[in-house]
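Why do we care about 3D structure at all? Because function follows from shape, and shape follows, mostly, from sequence. That is the central idea of this module. The next example makes it concrete: a single protein chain, its amino acid sequence, and then its structure expressed as tokens.
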Amino acid sequence: MEFGSTLKRSHASAAAAQSPEAALQLALRYLSYRPRSELEVKKYLGQKGCEPQVSDTVIAKLRSLNYIDDVSFAQIWARSRLESRGYGPRRVEQELRIKGIAANVIKETLRQSLQQTSEPESARKLLTKRFGGASLQDAKSQRRAVALLLRRGFSSKVIFDLLKYRIEED
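And the structure:
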């Protein structure tokens, strides 16, 4: 019984998504959770069964209403990832590329964001948070620290400088 009603609802939403009004409602609901890039909204509408021309119409309408703006989305995303999550610029760049943000927008966003946040200081905070006061002199700890910083998207230069500094400091 429950499966049938779910199936009926999915067919109803797919059929309704063919109209621009219904597709706009789907997109607005999708945007209500968090800001999204244009590509994310377009993919979502495609998954819901919207025709490409309906999706394009909805995207244009959302852009005109300022509900979709890839530049502001990239700025919010980068700031959030750099400051809150402790990610490095490479990781943020990769995430923005996956979300369909243009290369020039990514470059400018990272330039602006890195003026406000110091990459070495962010890496140092992450190491302090993860390893506390533990010494990073032994090879195993250094490998773990390097792997962590690389996964988080910090540059090799920053990692080397930081670990060299930490070793001399200890």
